[in-house]
Amino acid sequence: MPTTAPAANGPAQSPANGPAHGFADVTASDSTLRRFLHGLPGVDTVGLEARAASLGTRSIKTTAKAYALDLAISMVDLTTLEGADTPGKVRALGAKAVRPDPTDRTAPATAAVCVYPDMVPTAKEAVAGSGVKVASVATAFPAGRASLAVKLADVREAVAAGADEVDMVIDRGAFLAGNYMKVHDEITAVREACGTAARLKVIFETGELSTYDNIRRASWLGMLAGADFIKTSTGKVAVNATPANTLLMLEAVRDFRAQTGVQVGVKPAGGIRTAKDAIKFLVLVNETAGEDWLDNHWFRFGASSLLNDLLMQRQKLTTGRYSGPDYVTVD
Amino acid sequence: MSERLSVLKTYKLYVGGKFPRSESGRVYEVTDSKNNWLANAPLSSRKDARDAVVAARKAFGGWSGATAYNRGQILYRIAEMLEGRRDQYVAEVADAEGLSKSKAAAQVDAAIDRWVWYAGWTDKIAQVVGGGNPVAGPYFNLSSPEPTGVVAVLAPQESSFLGLVSVLAPVIATGNTAVVVASEKSPLPALSLGEVLATSDLPGGVVNILSGRTAEIAAPLAAHQDVNAIDLAGADETLAKELEITAADNLKRVLRPQPVDDADWSATPGTDRLTAFLETKTVWHPTGALGASGSSY
């Protein structure tokens, strides 16, 4: 597993080691933090979108495609975040995560299943012994509108139930109001609550941040506060992961590692439905952050229907026949 | 006054209610019976076939779920639109098949009449091939025909318009959705049909029309796991055999090549083509124990 981080998932990135990344003075006070975030270079919107679009035109065929499909499958956080989730559905999802294509044992397992905190024990049981991780959303997902105490209780419950990863949402209201320190402190508090047991993914809900400049600021804020992963969105709003906002976040993690030596993962979530889209994202990763991120420890797809399309494309490659939805499981 | 510049028509595919060019960007020259150039038609690739199947699958739920009466109305509407474009089709058929205007007109009229004939069948076929079955037990036993699903249709090679209508109309009349491979040598009437379908309330994706090399497009369609049936009308003997073998992998329903342009066009074509792509669903409905009167309902 390629990593340059001091420790893969330990407390090394927690604020206790803050000075290690050399940004301690930045997070010292509200005004220094604001000065730093607003001092980040502005995003060239046209250039960013053109770059993301041009990287989407790469042709990935034959053996490269086979590699990309398997890599993408291994990066999927198979997600179910519905009010109607039942233990039965979570168990079915777990079984699918462990063995996505029952007709082909060479298909890799997915990276994780992603569920609500109360479903973590069920999910944990369903994937036991397989290496598939259990991620839990927390902190009053998806709106994040609750007091810090409630959010932390949410996180602790998920971690206690055995979640390997915690997906938190930031307080967009505070962020948009310019109250960066509040967001920062919340993330560090959640980071602490996760302890050494769980990796922390920080969801910015890019669709609600309005501008690319805000996404860049949120990315840096999240990384400064100790996120192990930065994640685009909850999948619950109109605009979710796009190639452009993911590219922007990949640039942020690349620059952050260059400056601090700490590697942070990226997870686009929501709206990625086809294998073709997934491969475009992998091209972005390779061309922007580099090969070190081409691993499910550092890059994930938050998705549910994407997996079926990846499997159908994989079946097409192995059998030479176009597959159909009758040959993959219904979620 | 200078002579008008000619406005040439770009023939395009009809997939998912839209008119795309071939994904491959390729075209081929279509000529009339005397080898004079008529137009460039898209030379579809297997990816166009794949996209067409996706569109047909997407449209299947809505089309098969529409009431039979509604389907009949839409099919009749298509006939109305064809009638309005009669002259265009007469010219295209005359060019494509080397017929005189009057012979081509007779073919087009026959095709439109046939379309109307099939439009009338949509809400009648269930009574003919379905119904109650007498069973030994206290059950209502009902059989009803249901559409097979996505049907790949290889249109006849010689009869570019009447032949096409004869194979396409019965497939969609019963609620299937279709991916049509037009006649390789004369695809223009088929591609023009797409323009009629697009303006006839027919939901996009119910009919998808591809032009190109029949063998090239038919092979991936026959192998496609999400195609439920294939009509081999436009395949020669060798190709038909090959496709039938490929189609066996997912137990596709296969209709072997049948003659479609009989000498007598005004004769009714019969219901064979309607029933070829229907599946029978039978429901056993308990009526409870029979009472002393002999009946509980």
Short description:
The complex is a heterodimer of chains A (331) and B (297). Chain A has helices spanning 30-39, 45-55, 62-74, 87-98, 120-126, 148-160, 172-176, 180-194, 212-224, 243-260, 275-288, 305-319, and strands spanning 76-79, 112-115, 133-138, 165-169, 199-203, 229-231, 265-267, 301-303.
Can you walk me through this structure?
The complex is a heterodimer of chains A (about 325) and B (about 300). Chain A has about 325 residues and is of the alpha/beta class. Chain A has one domain: TIM Barrel. Chain A contains twelve helices and eight strands. Chain A has an eight-stranded parallel beta sheet. In chain A, strand 2, helix 5 and strand 3 form a beta-alpha-beta unit. In chain A, about 50% of the residues are buried. The longest helix of chain B is centred in the middle third of the chain and has 21 residues. Chain B has one domain: Aldehyde Dehydrogenase, Chain A, domain 1, CATH 3.40.605.10. In chain B, about 45% of the residues are buried. Chain B is of the alpha/beta class. In chain B, the strands form three sheets. In chain B, strands 7-6-5-8-9 form a five-stranded parallel beta sheet, with helices on both faces. At the A-B interface, loops of A face helix 1 of B.
